[in-house]
Amino acid sequence: MPRLNVPDPVGLTRELVRCPSVTPEDAGALDQLGEALAELGFSVERVTFTDPGTPDVENLSARIGTGSPHIAFAGHTDVVPPGDLAAWSVDPFGGSQVGNEVVGRGVVDMKGAVAAFAAAAGRYLDACGGQLPGSISFIVTGDEEGPSINGTRKLLQWMAERGEHPDMCIVGEPTGGRKAADTVKVGRRGSLTAALTVHGTQGHTAYPHHADNPVHRLVRALNRMINEPLDDGSAHFEPSALQVTTVDVGNPAHNVIPSRATATLNIRFNDRHTSEHVMGWLRARVHAETQAFELSPRISGESFLSPPGKLTDALSAAVHAVLGETPELGTGGGTSDARFIKDVCPVAELGLRNATAHRVDERATTDELRALTEIYHDALTRLIPAA
Protein backbone atom coordinates (compact mmCIF):
# COMPACT_ATOMS: atom_id res chain seq x y z
CA MET A 1 0.00 0.00 0.00
CA PRO A 2 1.42 3.47 -0.87
CA ARG A 3 2.58 5.55 2.06
CA LEU A 4 0.03 8.11 3.24
CA ASN A 5 0.53 11.85 3.13
CA VAL A 6 0.63 12.24 6.91
CA PRO A 7 0.21 15.89 7.93
CA ASP A 8 2.92 17.63 9.94
CA PRO A 9 1.31 18.84 13.19
CA VAL A 10 3.29 22.08 13.22
CA GLY A 11 2.54 22.90 9.60
CA LEU A 12 -1.15 22.06 9.92
CA THR A 13 -1.44 24.11 13.11
CA ARG A 14 -0.03 27.12 11.29
CA GLU A 15 -2.42 26.62 8.36
CA LEU A 16 -5.40 26.40 10.71
CA VAL A 17 -4.32 29.53 12.59
CA ARG A 18 -4.22 31.43 9.29
CA CYS A 19 -7.99 30.94 9.10
CA PRO A 20 -9.55 33.75 11.22
CA SER A 21 -12.34 31.50 12.47
CA VAL A 22 -13.77 33.68 15.23
CA THR A 23 -17.09 32.12 16.26
CA PRO A 24 -19.30 31.61 14.24
CA GLU A 25 -17.10 32.18 11.16
CA ASP A 26 -15.29 29.16 9.73
CA ALA A 27 -12.99 31.14 7.42
CA GLY A 28 -11.69 27.96 5.76
CA ALA A 29 -10.51 26.13 8.87
CA LEU A 30 -12.74 23.09 8.32
CA ASP A 31 -11.66 23.06 4.65
CA GLN A 32 -8.03 22.73 5.73
CA LEU A 33 -8.80 19.96 8.20
CA GLY A 34 -11.16 18.14 5.82
CA GLU A 35 -8.57 18.10 3.04
CA ALA A 36 -5.94 16.66 5.38
CA LEU A 37 -8.31 13.93 6.58
CA ALA A 38 -9.56 13.10 3.07
CA GLU A 39 -5.97 12.47 1.97
CA LEU A 40 -5.71 9.92 4.78
CA GLY A 41 -8.76 8.07 3.50
CA PHE A 42 -11.40 9.49 5.83
CA SER A 43 -14.95 9.97 4.61
CA VAL A 44 -15.53 13.64 5.39
CA GLU A 45 -18.89 15.37 5.69
CA ARG A 46 -19.77 18.96 6.47
CA VAL A 47 -22.99 19.72 8.29
CA THR A 48 -24.47 23.16 8.98
CA PHE A 49 -26.92 23.51 11.86
CA THR A 50 -29.35 26.34 12.47
CA ASP A 51 -31.47 27.53 15.36
CA PRO A 52 -33.69 30.59 15.72
CA GLY A 53 -31.85 33.54 17.21
CA THR A 54 -28.38 32.04 16.75
CA PRO A 55 -25.94 32.09 13.83
CA ASP A 56 -25.67 29.13 11.47
CA VAL A 57 -22.59 27.05 12.25
CA GLU A 58 -20.54 24.68 10.11
CA ASN A 59 -19.36 21.38 11.58
CA LEU A 60 -17.24 18.49 10.36
CA SER A 61 -17.74 14.76 10.78
CA ALA A 62 -15.17 12.33 9.45
CA ARG A 63 -14.72 8.59 9.81
CA ILE A 64 -12.53 5.78 8.59
CA GLY A 65 -13.27 2.13 9.28
CA THR A 66 -16.45 0.34 10.25
CA GLY A 67 -15.27 -1.93 13.02
CA SER A 68 -14.99 -1.73 16.77
CA PRO A 69 -13.62 -0.17 18.86
CA HIS A 70 -14.67 3.19 17.49
CA ILE A 71 -12.42 5.94 18.86
CA ALA A 72 -13.43 9.56 18.31
CA PHE A 73 -11.35 12.71 18.42
CA ALA A 74 -13.44 15.76 19.29
CA GLY A 75 -12.61 19.45 19.21
CA HIS A 76 -13.31 22.83 17.70
CA THR A 77 -11.74 25.14 15.16
CA ASP A 78 -13.52 28.31 16.22
CA VAL A 79 -11.59 30.78 18.35
CA VAL A 80 -12.22 33.82 20.53
CA PRO A 81 -11.47 37.30 19.13
CA PRO A 82 -7.83 38.40 19.27
CA GLY A 83 -8.54 41.62 21.18
CA ASP A 84 -6.14 44.53 20.84
CA LEU A 85 -4.12 43.79 17.70
CA ALA A 86 -1.45 46.28 18.75
CA ALA A 87 -0.72 44.20 21.84
CA TRP A 88 0.30 41.18 19.76
CA SER A 89 3.92 40.68 18.78
CA VAL A 90 2.75 39.04 15.53
CA ASP A 91 -0.36 38.94 13.36
CA PRO A 92 -2.72 36.77 15.46
CA PHE A 93 -3.90 35.08 12.27
CA GLY A 94 -0.56 34.93 10.52
CA GLY A 95 0.35 31.39 11.58
CA SER A 96 3.78 32.67 12.61
CA GLN A 97 6.61 30.54 13.91
CA VAL A 98 8.95 32.52 16.13
CA GLY A 99 11.97 30.42 17.03
CA ASN A 100 10.55 27.15 18.29
CA GLU A 101 7.09 28.57 19.04
CA VAL A 102 3.95 28.81 16.93
CA VAL A 103 2.19 32.03 17.92
CA GLY A 104 -1.38 32.95 17.04
CA ARG A 105 -4.99 32.93 18.10
CA GLY A 106 -6.20 29.37 18.59
CA VAL A 107 -2.83 27.62 18.73
CA VAL A 108 -3.59 26.31 22.21
CA ASP A 109 -7.39 26.45 22.22
CA MET A 110 -7.43 24.30 20.24
CA LYS A 111 -6.14 24.19 16.68
CA GLY A 112 -2.83 22.70 17.82
CA ALA A 113 -4.60 19.68 19.28
CA VAL A 114 -6.81 19.31 16.19
CA ALA A 115 -3.68 19.24 14.03
CA ALA A 116 -2.09 16.71 16.39
CA PHE A 117 -5.24 14.56 16.13
CA ALA A 118 -4.92 14.46 12.34
CA ALA A 119 -1.18 13.78 12.42
CA ALA A 120 -1.60 11.00 15.00
CA ALA A 121 -4.40 9.36 13.03
CA GLY A 122 -2.28 9.56 9.89
CA ARG A 123 0.69 7.88 11.55
CA TYR A 124 -1.53 5.14 12.93
CA LEU A 125 -3.20 4.49 9.56
CA ASP A 126 0.14 4.56 7.77
CA ALA A 127 1.47 1.90 10.15
CA CYS A 128 -1.70 -0.20 9.65
CA GLY A 129 -1.07 -0.49 5.93
CA GLY A 130 -4.78 -0.33 5.21
CA GLN A 131 -5.73 -2.97 7.81
CA LEU A 132 -7.61 -0.85 10.33
CA PRO A 133 -9.05 -3.18 13.00
CA GLY A 134 -11.48 -0.57 14.38
CA SER A 135 -12.76 2.89 13.51
CA ILE A 136 -11.48 6.44 13.99
CA SER A 137 -13.73 9.46 13.72
CA PHE A 138 -13.50 13.23 14.07
CA ILE A 139 -16.20 15.38 15.69
CA VAL A 140 -15.21 18.99 15.05
CA THR A 141 -17.39 22.07 15.52
CA GLY A 142 -17.20 25.79 14.89
CA ASP A 143 -19.43 26.60 17.86
CA GLU A 144 -17.54 25.81 21.06
CA GLU A 145 -16.44 29.31 22.01
CA GLY A 146 -19.90 30.71 21.29
CA PRO A 147 -23.38 29.68 22.41
CA SER A 148 -22.67 25.97 21.73
CA ILE A 149 -26.14 25.47 20.29
CA ASN A 150 -25.38 24.55 16.67
CA GLY A 151 -22.27 22.52 17.37
CA THR A 152 -21.23 19.32 19.08
CA ARG A 153 -24.56 18.49 20.69
CA LYS A 154 -26.40 18.57 17.35
CA LEU A 155 -23.53 16.85 15.56
CA LEU A 156 -23.74 13.95 18.02
CA GLN A 157 -27.51 13.72 17.43
CA TRP A 158 -26.90 13.75 13.67
CA MET A 159 -24.36 10.92 14.04
CA ALA A 160 -26.71 8.88 16.23
CA GLU A 161 -29.46 9.13 13.61
CA ARG A 162 -26.99 7.56 11.18
CA GLY A 163 -26.17 4.76 13.60
CA GLU A 164 -22.74 6.11 14.56
CA HIS A 165 -21.90 5.68 18.24
CA PRO A 166 -18.28 6.15 19.38
CA ASP A 167 -17.05 3.75 22.06
CA MET A 168 -14.65 6.32 23.54
CA CYS A 169 -13.76 9.94 22.84
CA ILE A 170 -10.68 12.10 23.34
CA VAL A 171 -11.23 15.88 23.49
CA GLY A 172 -8.23 18.09 22.75
CA GLU A 173 -8.93 21.00 25.09
CA PRO A 174 -5.80 22.54 26.67
CA THR A 175 -5.47 20.65 29.97
CA GLY A 176 -1.78 21.12 30.76
CA GLY A 177 -0.65 23.11 33.78
CA ARG A 178 3.13 23.09 34.11
CA LYS A 179 3.56 21.40 30.74
CA ALA A 180 1.51 20.00 27.90
CA ALA A 181 -0.48 16.85 28.69
CA ASP A 182 0.36 16.78 32.41
CA THR A 183 -3.35 16.49 33.27
CA VAL A 184 -6.13 14.29 31.91
CA LYS A 185 -9.52 15.85 32.54
CA VAL A 186 -11.97 13.15 33.60
CA GLY A 187 -14.87 15.43 34.44
CA ARG A 188 -16.01 19.02 34.65
CA ARG A 189 -17.89 21.16 37.10
CA GLY A 190 -21.36 22.28 36.15
CA SER A 191 -21.93 25.95 35.36
CA LEU A 192 -25.07 27.91 36.17
CA THR A 193 -25.64 31.64 35.71
CA ALA A 194 -28.60 33.10 37.58
CA ALA A 195 -30.24 36.50 37.14
CA LEU A 196 -31.74 37.65 40.45
CA THR A 197 -34.20 40.55 40.75
CA VAL A 198 -35.46 41.68 44.16
CA HIS A 199 -38.52 43.94 44.21
CA GLY A 200 -39.32 46.63 46.78
CA THR A 201 -41.29 49.85 47.13
CA GLN A 202 -39.87 53.13 45.85
CA GLY A 203 -39.75 56.05 48.23
CA HIS A 204 -37.88 59.04 49.66
CA THR A 205 -34.67 58.28 51.53
CA ALA A 206 -35.80 60.69 54.30
CA TYR A 207 -38.92 58.57 54.88
CA PRO A 208 -37.70 54.96 54.67
CA HIS A 209 -40.67 53.73 56.72
CA HIS A 210 -42.86 54.53 53.70
CA ALA A 211 -40.69 52.42 51.38
CA ASP A 212 -39.18 48.95 51.15
CA ASN A 213 -35.54 49.03 50.04
CA PRO A 214 -34.81 46.07 47.73
CA VAL A 215 -31.07 46.80 47.82
CA HIS A 216 -30.92 45.97 51.51
CA ARG A 217 -32.78 42.71 50.96
CA LEU A 218 -30.58 41.83 47.98
CA VAL A 219 -27.38 42.52 49.93
CA ARG A 220 -28.54 40.36 52.83
CA ALA A 221 -29.46 37.51 50.46
CA LEU A 222 -26.07 37.75 48.73
CA ASN A 223 -24.37 37.73 52.09
CA ARG A 224 -26.11 34.45 52.94
CA MET A 225 -24.92 32.90 49.69
CA ILE A 226 -21.34 34.06 50.16
CA ASN A 227 -21.06 32.98 53.79
CA GLU A 228 -22.80 29.61 53.46
CA PRO A 229 -20.69 27.47 51.07
CA LEU A 230 -22.44 24.87 48.99
CA ASP A 231 -19.98 22.15 50.02
CA ASP A 232 -16.35 21.39 50.89
CA GLY A 233 -15.56 19.42 47.74
CA SER A 234 -15.83 15.76 46.77
CA ALA A 235 -13.54 12.86 45.95
CA HIS A 236 -12.66 14.17 42.48
CA PHE A 237 -13.75 17.83 42.63
CA GLU A 238 -12.79 20.99 44.44
CA PRO A 239 -15.47 22.86 46.44
CA SER A 240 -18.31 24.41 44.48
CA ALA A 241 -17.86 28.16 44.03
CA LEU A 242 -20.31 31.05 43.78
CA GLN A 243 -19.28 34.40 42.37
CA VAL A 244 -21.38 37.57 42.25
CA THR A 245 -20.57 39.10 38.86
CA THR A 246 -22.91 42.11 38.75
CA VAL A 247 -25.05 44.17 41.14
CA ASP A 248 -27.23 46.79 39.47
CA VAL A 249 -29.85 49.30 40.57
CA GLY A 250 -29.83 51.88 37.79
CA ASN A 251 -30.78 54.62 40.21
CA PRO A 252 -29.74 58.13 39.04
CA ALA A 253 -30.94 59.86 42.24
CA HIS A 254 -29.18 59.78 45.62
CA ASN A 255 -32.34 60.52 47.56
CA VAL A 256 -34.67 57.90 46.06
CA ILE A 257 -35.06 54.37 47.36
CA PRO A 258 -35.33 52.25 44.19
CA SER A 259 -38.14 49.84 43.42
CA ARG A 260 -35.90 46.98 42.46
CA ALA A 261 -32.31 45.73 42.51
CA THR A 262 -30.66 43.02 40.43
CA ALA A 263 -27.61 40.81 40.59
CA THR A 264 -26.01 38.15 38.41
CA LEU A 265 -24.44 35.06 39.93
CA ASN A 266 -22.27 32.33 38.46
CA ILE A 267 -21.95 29.02 40.28
CA ARG A 268 -19.45 26.33 39.31
CA PHE A 269 -20.73 23.22 41.06
CA ASN A 270 -19.24 19.78 41.59
CA ASP A 271 -20.72 16.29 41.35
CA ARG A 272 -22.50 16.62 44.69
CA HIS A 273 -25.13 18.78 42.99
CA THR A 274 -27.37 19.11 40.00
CA SER A 275 -28.41 22.47 38.58
CA GLU A 276 -31.88 21.88 40.03
CA HIS A 277 -30.40 21.41 43.50
CA VAL A 278 -28.28 24.56 43.13
CA MET A 279 -31.36 26.59 42.15
CA GLY A 280 -33.19 25.29 45.21
CA TRP A 281 -30.24 26.29 47.39
CA LEU A 282 -30.27 29.81 45.90
CA ARG A 283 -34.02 30.26 46.25
CA ALA A 284 -33.93 29.25 49.90
CA ARG A 285 -31.37 31.93 50.71
CA VAL A 286 -33.22 34.66 48.85
CA HIS A 287 -36.55 33.57 50.30
CA ALA A 288 -35.12 34.00 53.81
CA GLU A 289 -34.91 37.76 53.07
CA THR A 290 -37.87 38.39 50.77
CA GLN A 291 -40.64 36.72 48.86
CA ALA A 292 -40.73 39.43 46.20
CA PHE A 293 -38.04 38.18 43.85
CA GLU A 294 -37.41 36.53 40.49
CA LEU A 295 -34.58 34.07 39.86
CA SER A 296 -33.88 32.96 36.29
CA PRO A 297 -31.15 30.41 35.49
CA ARG A 298 -29.08 29.74 32.38
CA ILE A 299 -27.39 26.36 32.63
CA SER A 300 -24.26 25.87 30.56
CA GLY A 301 -23.75 22.28 31.68
CA GLU A 302 -24.20 19.80 34.49
CA SER A 303 -21.27 18.47 36.46
CA PHE A 304 -20.07 15.07 35.37
CA LEU A 305 -17.35 12.52 36.03
CA SER A 306 -16.11 9.85 33.63
CA PRO A 307 -14.80 7.17 35.98
CA PRO A 308 -11.20 6.11 35.33
CA GLY A 309 -11.07 3.11 33.00
CA LYS A 310 -9.73 1.90 29.68
CA LEU A 311 -9.65 5.35 28.10
CA THR A 312 -7.90 7.13 30.96
CA ASP A 313 -5.55 4.18 31.40
CA ALA A 314 -4.52 4.39 27.75
CA LEU A 315 -4.01 8.15 27.85
CA SER A 316 -2.03 7.98 31.10
CA ALA A 317 0.18 5.20 29.74
CA ALA A 318 0.72 7.15 26.51
CA VAL A 319 1.75 10.30 28.39
CA HIS A 320 4.17 8.28 30.51
CA ALA A 321 5.62 6.57 27.44
CA VAL A 322 6.26 9.88 25.67
CA LEU A 323 7.03 12.28 28.54
CA GLY A 324 8.21 9.89 31.24
CA GLU A 325 5.65 11.20 33.73
CA THR A 326 2.22 10.00 34.82
CA PRO A 327 -0.43 12.72 34.36
CA GLU A 328 -2.87 13.81 37.04
CA LEU A 329 -6.55 13.02 36.67
CA GLY A 330 -8.32 16.36 37.14
CA THR A 331 -11.70 18.05 36.89
CA GLY A 332 -10.85 21.74 37.21
CA GLY A 333 -11.43 24.59 34.80
CA GLY A 334 -14.51 25.73 32.94
CA THR A 335 -16.95 23.88 30.74
CA SER A 336 -16.18 22.12 27.45
CA ASP A 337 -18.04 20.12 24.84
CA ALA A 338 -17.20 17.00 26.83
CA ARG A 339 -20.41 17.85 28.71
CA PHE A 340 -22.34 16.72 25.62
CA ILE A 341 -20.14 13.76 24.72
CA LYS A 342 -20.34 12.16 28.18
CA ASP A 343 -23.96 11.24 27.42
CA VAL A 344 -22.78 9.14 24.45
CA CYS A 345 -19.60 7.39 25.61
CA PRO A 346 -16.68 7.63 28.05
CA VAL A 347 -14.78 10.86 27.41
CA ALA A 348 -11.50 12.36 28.58
CA GLU A 349 -9.69 15.58 27.71
CA LEU A 350 -5.98 15.94 27.02
CA GLY A 351 -4.14 18.77 25.34
CA LEU A 352 -1.55 21.54 25.41
CA ARG A 353 -0.62 23.88 28.25
CA ASN A 354 -3.50 26.24 28.95
CA ALA A 355 -1.41 29.17 30.23
CA THR A 356 -1.82 31.31 27.09
CA ALA A 357 -5.31 30.22 25.99
CA HIS A 358 -7.43 33.29 25.09
CA ARG A 359 -4.47 35.57 25.85
CA VAL A 360 -2.38 37.88 23.68
CA ASP A 361 0.44 35.96 21.94
CA GLU A 362 -1.22 32.58 22.49
CA ARG A 363 1.48 30.04 21.70
CA ALA A 364 2.87 26.51 21.93
CA THR A 365 6.31 25.14 21.17
CA THR A 366 6.95 22.88 18.23
CA ASP A 367 8.20 20.25 20.68
CA GLU A 368 4.86 20.38 22.53
CA LEU A 369 2.89 19.95 19.32
CA ARG A 370 5.01 16.98 18.25
CA ALA A 371 4.90 15.40 21.70
CA LEU A 372 1.12 15.73 21.83
CA THR A 373 0.94 14.02 18.43
CA GLU A 374 3.06 11.14 19.75
CA ILE A 375 0.80 10.83 22.81
CA TYR A 376 -2.37 10.66 20.72
CA HIS A 377 -0.72 8.13 18.39
CA ASP A 378 0.44 5.99 21.30
CA ALA A 379 -3.04 6.11 22.82
CA LEU A 380 -4.58 4.95 19.53
CA THR A 381 -2.27 1.94 19.42
CA ARG A 382 -3.42 1.01 22.91
CA LEU A 383 -7.12 1.56 22.26
CA ILE A 384 -7.16 -0.07 18.79
CA PRO A 385 -4.48 -2.79 18.95
CA ALA A 386 -3.18 -4.03 15.62
CA ALA A 387 -5.07 -7.02 14.25
Keyword list:
30% helix; alpha+beta
Walk me through the structure:
The protein is α+β, with helices and mostly antiparallel strands and 387 residues long. 30% of the residues lie in helices and 26% in strands. The protein is built from nine helices and 19 strands. It has helices spanning 9-17, 29-39, 107-128, 152-161, 214-227, 275-287, 310-323, 338-341, 366-383; strands at residues 43-51, 54-64, 70-76, 96-98, 101-103, 135-141, 168-171, 183-185, 187-188, 190-199, 203-204, 241-248, 256-257, 260-269, 293-301, 304-305, 328-330, 347-349, 363-365. The strands form six sheets. Strands 1-2-6-3-7-18 form a six-stranded mixed beta sheet, with helices on both faces. Strands 12-14-10-15 form a four-stranded antiparallel beta sheet. The protein has a three-stranded antiparallel beta sheet with strand order 4-5-19. A hairpin with a 2-residue loop joins β1 (43-51) and β2 (54-64). α1 crosses α3 (107-128), α5 packs across α6 (275-287) and α7 (310-323) packs across α9 (366-383). The longest helix has 22 residues, at 107-128. The protein is elongated. The protein starts with 8 loop residues before the first helix and ends with a helix. The relative contact order is 0.19. The model has no long low-confidence stretch (mean pLDDT 95).
